[in-house]
Amino acid sequence: MQMQLLRSVLCCVVLTICGLDADAYRILFMGPFPAPSHWMWLEHFQRDLLERGHHVTSLNNHPTKKPHENLTEIILNPSFDIPKHFPKKNIFTMRFASDFQNLQLWWKIGELTTEHALQDAQVRRLIDSQDEHFDLVILEQFFHEAFLMFGHKFKCPVVTIGTMGYADNMDHAMGILTPWSVIPHLLLSHTDKMTFSQRAYNAYLSLYDAVIRRWHYMPLMQQLAEKYFGSAIEGALPNVLDLERNISLMLINSHRSVDLPRPSMPGLINVGGAHIRPAQKLPADIQSFIDNATHGVVYFSLGSYMKSTDMPPEKTEQLLQAFGRLKQQVLWKYENASIGQLPPNVMIRKWMPQNDILAHPNVKLFISHGGIFGTQEGIYWGVPMLCIPLYGDQHRNTIKSVREGYARSLVFSKMNVEDLVSNIEMLIYEPAYKQSALEVSKRFRDNPMHPLEEASYWIEYVIRHRGAGHLKSQGAHMPLHQYLLLDVIGCALLALWLAVWLPWRMLRKLYNWWAAAAATAQKQETKKRL
Ligand SMILES: *[C@@H]1O[C@H](CO)[C@@H](O)[C@H](O)[C@H]1NC(C)=O
Ligand SMILES: *[C@@H]1O[C@H](CO)[C@@H](O)[C@H](O)[C@H]1NC(C)=O
Ligand SMILES: *[C@@H]1O[C@H](CO)[C@@H](O)[C@H](O)[C@H]1NC(C)=O
Ligand SMILES: *[C@@H]1O[C@H](CO)[C@@H](O)[C@H](O)[C@H]1NC(C)=O
């Protein structure tokens, strides 16, 4: 009896000690891109890892508002000033930029922000550090491939988290070639049912992306990696292209219910919707504002990067006029204490708890810039949307939302008071929009487990299995001609050619020989006769 008790107590102690040791990992978590929306999404993953008891060293641009005893922050200082390089006022008046220009823009931003971050004194200390140990490096899957060198430096596996959805290069890194016949390029808003000209353009853009990325952009990343890691790491540095093919796992912001089906690999995990939490209590003033609105509420926000205060004054005026004509109450995320003549049904606040507001059943419409995270929140809570896209993926998200039937769109530079009022009223009073919104919402919520929980599960899985090499297909490391079976097809063609050509040659030889023999025989015959 006593022996048994002793044994179970011992067991308990051993389990507790081992459990603590085995389960708390040291993770280097990096989000060098300065745009706030990217970090707001990434921080959800970081927080969940902390809550699971791991130790996180976090390199990013935004000091946390919720400190944690196991969180060490490396805040880039100063952080990269995007508006200085890409002025905001150009965004509001932006003319059509070609897909090719957009790609170039991403590469340029990637190059500038990567170098800016690698120059930071604290980052250089991390690069030079001798006694640091990490079990895993997590990096935003964006345009910062030089940072993959941290995985090599700390000899640990790498997981990336993608904000923007799938790009061809993610497929390649995991070992599949994206079929351009059915998968539109990241920048395009086609469906998987493309016409001939759409497929042709898609193939052209995708090929351009693949070639310039491989031969221009990635060599730049290699140069940056060598410039900043060269002195800190002994021996030759690996190629960033190889490090990319060595990424263990990619967590991608995509969801089966709203994004196109595509071929995949076990190392590609969809975590769209990971940032959506159960609604929390609203601040008292906003709560009573929404509760009291007998005709419902319209919520308006341009997101975290573009500020409503950056808008040209005539647009602000148009919005105010339009809102003033509505029966509904309007909540506007406006980043200044005053806005001029505020209609009585409009309330402005510098900051709004967007997720919790959209969760309120009295919110009838979300006017947004079509950013991916806001769109997903709107979808989750089943709120119809009026999208006014400005830049980047916002146009693409908007086209998709309109196609799904729960949204309408306006062009910012051309919108006027009439357009605003009629679109807002249509979205509120025609029930088809709400119906579509509820349908999509139901699909979007139907998950075997919460996407954030799934993400953390796979992150721990990669650490538990030391990089989980078994998730990776050899396709990632295979030369293109082998992957496409060009060598086999070449061989088969050669065999076929030989099988036809050789017998034919032999027959011809035989025939010639016979013909020659016959001719000689005939000649001799003639000679004899003569
Ligand atoms: C921080 O880490 C220590 C050691 O791994 C652990 O015992 C503790 O519970 C963690 N703190 C929190 C708040 O999770
Ligand atoms: C790829 O990752 C594994 C561990 O996940 C590591 O052992 C290997 O050295 C890495 N290869 C390169 C080129 O860094
Ligand atoms: C909302 O209604 C309650 C009770 O009807 C009232 O006390 C409160 O002042 C109202 N709030 C607003 C913002 O109108
Ligand atoms: C912001 O508010 C201040 C006063 O609070 C006002 O003077 C200023 O014009 C406002 N700026 C904008 C862009 O509305």
Automatic annotation (TrEMBL):
EC class (word): transferase
Family label: Belongs to the UDP-glycosyltransferase family.
Residue intervals passing through the bilayer: 483-504
GO cellular component, one term: membrane
A Pfam family: UDPGT
InterPro entries found in the cross-reference section: UDP-glycosyltransferase, UDP_glucos_trans, UDP_glycos_trans_CS
Localization in the cell: Membrane
Membrane topology: Single-pass membrane protein
GO molecular function: glucuronosyltransferase activity
Organism encoding this protein: Drosophila hydei
Signal peptide: 1-24
EC number(s) per entry: 2.4.1.17
Keyword list, A-Z: Glycosyltransferase, Membrane, Signal, Transferase, Transmembrane, Transmembrane helix
Catalytic activity: glucuronate acceptor + UDP-alpha-D-glucuronate = acceptor beta-D-glucuronoside + UDP + H(+)
Lineage: Eukaryota, Metazoa, Ecdysozoa, Arthropoda, Hexapoda
Protein name (record): UDP-glucuronosyltransferase
SUPFAM superfamilies, A to Z: UDP-Glycosyltransferase/glycogen phosphorylase
Superkingdom of origin: Eukaryota
